[in-house]
Design a protein that fits this description.
The chain is 47% helix and 6% strand. By secondary structure, the chain is of the alpha/beta class. A 10-stranded parallel β-sheet has the order 1-2-3-4-5-6-7-8-9-10. The chain starts with 5 loop residues before the first helix and ends with a helix.
Amino acid sequence: MPFPTLSKLAAKAVAEGILNDTLSLDYALDTKSRNTIVQKLLDSDGDKYKILEVFKNKLNVTKIDFRRSMDCKIDAEGVRILSNFNLDSLDFGDLSQLIDKYPDNSSNNDTLDIVFLLMRALNNYSRRSLIHLGLPGDQEFIGGWEQEVSKIVPILQSMNISAAIFNERFQLSNLCISFPNLLVLDISLADSLSTLHGIKNLEKLQKLSMCFVDFDDSDGYKELSELKNLKYLDVSGSDFSIRDMLAVRVRMEALEFLDCSITSVTEYELEEFVKNHPSLRTIVAICTPCNTTTFSRIKVLNAPSLNSMSECLEYLFLTDRINMASNFMKDVFENLQSSPENVGVSELRQIKNAVIFVLRESVDPENNFWTAMWYLESGLFWYELSISLFSMEIFERINLFYNVFNANEMTEYQEEYVGLIFLMLGFLVNYMAPGILIPDRVLKFVIEKTVELVDEFQDYKPQGSQTISKAEKFMGRDQLQKIIGNSELMRKVQELLNIA
């Protein structure tokens, strides 16, 4: 499992100290540390980007990524702040709020003058040094922006324009002609892109990501054969991509890495693709019909098994696609669900670590919800509890699951997850027995959450009453009152006890 490095943990702690105003940066930091700290700041609270102005001398970063902070919407002041830094990498997030400040005067549409914006955001050094640029693809820009931007950042080698909307004003061929020196291009989630026509102009391209991009006609893939230096291709989520490339005899002679996860690729199709690409060294086929496919000379990340779980999750983490992990974990759980009692203690620990990793690394509440839901429904957690003695680690995990479910906004699944929460609270209560010491904060957690759930879901009063009654049986009324320490909460507890 890709546990955070000590430097990342330190960067997170420094970022939290800056946000909480409990830390002063009175020491020098290297460039990598400054970049990591600023990214942690933006990840935790995208609206705090203006703090960069305060620490511009201490946190003189070279890389800024607003795309990862979904709640970050920089204003004109934020654009000006960027010019304080000598950047070699810049990813913008949502720019729709800047249309009035940087309007396209030649159009009546909500188009943005990205050329003027970049001139304001990048100082002379950044313009000469910028290697990577990420733009919000769903934002329409001034006509002909590609050629003008290529003049502003002449040595650009990498571009992320995922979720782009292609039309008459914005065509892939124009983009490729304007930036012929690109080594990396991400056009994932492209809308209305009917073909890769023009991509042959990117003769130096080494890495192409086009996740969830489907063409009506397999001819759309033809020009991939012209990319003699392409080593990395990601067509994950593009359902028939492998089949279509086979149909038009695509050959990428330098291709070493293929990601075809979340597609309908068959084992036969993958075998044929491998025959056509002798340089292939790694294939990622997570959540595909090729779950058990292997090749003698190729590393394959696919099987939803314990053996490959850590490696697959590490790949998803390193490629910033941890939110795909819930689908992979579901497959792992389904493989083990029929006989959880056959899973050993070390395997249970491995699964536990994987689940905790996903829940802590993913920032998507829905992804976390499904990961926790499928884990609990698999029976693996309940089996682990049935063979384990009480520990604070178990309590912390239950607390984590409660917070995951509590953050969920999908009301149609409330009944299901409320039932699972009561099961977890019931397990904590079942640990109570003579001679077993349960910390007061665990008992208070059980009582408070039981009352909260019953207040919101009246149909669960019997379960709530049963949980509280069992707790009182081993604690006694006096200890119960002492732990609660709140007359209103005690009144509600008494009501539930009266039902029993």
